Input
Amino acid sequence: MKVALITGITGQDGAYLAKFLLSKGYKVYGTYRRLSTPNFWRLQALGVLDKVELVSFDLIDQSSMLNILKKIKPDEIYNLAAQSFVGASFEQPVSTAEITALGLPRILDVMRILCPQAKFYQASSSEMFGKVQQIPQNEKTPFYPRSPYAAAKLYAHWVTINYREAYNLFTCSGILFNHESPLRGLEFVTRKITNAVARIKLGLQKELLLGNLDAKRDWGYAPDFVEAMWLMLQQEHPDDFVIATGETHTVREFCEVAFQEVGLHYNDYVKVDERFFRPSEVDLLVGDPAQAKQKLNWKPKTTFKELVKIMVQEDLNRWQRFQKGEHFPWDAPYDYVFGKTISPTYQLDR
Ligand code: NAP
Ligand code: GDD
Output
């Protein structure tokens, strides 16, 4: 039986990847952090919490990785753990670098010494393209990061390549464009929108405050994307791949389709609030997944409209259950959730 280790198993991708690897017959270990309130809700929601082994790990604590790799000797390591919210990286640039950038060599160096035969996946990001130098973006497009998060991911991306070239390790980097799902954190724009649409429809919320409605993203469906991570590690030779749908849509279009799904018009509810603008923005992302299609035989299965529908319907379902008295902890409250708007620190002086 193959053994896989997923760092960040409590996050959106970690949960879907765990489910996917279990379906392939893997023994799955996943890392979690001690938090004041445990957050295993995604693993619970997918029905896999009791099927995975949880191991304690923090990306700033190298010895915890040393203990894990010594004990479990995985065949495959998927490094999904990160401070993954771009907005927060402007508020906490140093801890973002400490976790998202420096966390990577902490893992790779232990892997190099203890289990150099393991195959390694790094969760790189389309954010690294930032102020895009080419449309659409592919594996050869130059990078231009626009946030501390993107800069941290770029460092980790190059270290992943460096360990492949320097030590002949099987390390791959997946340059994934935005991928969403009902398990997405509420701070990200898609889930913030679908959650608000459900609440507005049910009379629980009156308006939705957003930032830049003109930003364009290439949005895919997370379960489709985790399969690409696995496919990369099944190749004979390690390589880096862009994983994307090849389509781009504005935040405004996402709102339009989401509100339409429940028979409402976004113009009646969405208000632009400067507090949600970022100090520097990534205006347009659209990926070219041709190499993934050719070498991995991967392509997205879910369309933009299907994605929005899945997310809106699931949020409606959850809030309807909530209204009937069910209190399953499917999310931690965040941001503009229960009528309270939390200003990003970099916007407090506006
Ligand atoms: P997510 O939901 O935010 O999950 C991030 C995971 O990292 C969580 O399990 C989190 O644990 C863990 N983590 C955070 N800080 C940590 C630390 N100091 N030590 C150990 N673990 C830590 O993110 P996601 O959407 O699943 O994304 C997975 C990865 O892909 C991330 O690296 C992200 O940057 C990258 N990525 C995502 C997308 C996307 O569109 N989703 C696109 C490109 C790249 P807690 O639950 O304890 O917070
Ligand atoms: N979060 C948020 N909240 N974003 C908003 C809002 C708002 O109220 N209003 C407009 N936006 C815009 C942001 O300015 C950005 O241009 C876009 O919506 C998407 O923002 P997010 O959903 O926060 O995602 P992201 O693109 O910054 O980052 C995500 O995708 C990356 C891949 O490109 C994250 O998952 C990253 O971890 C990932 O690397």
Q: What stands out?
A: The first strand starts at residue 3 and ends at 7.
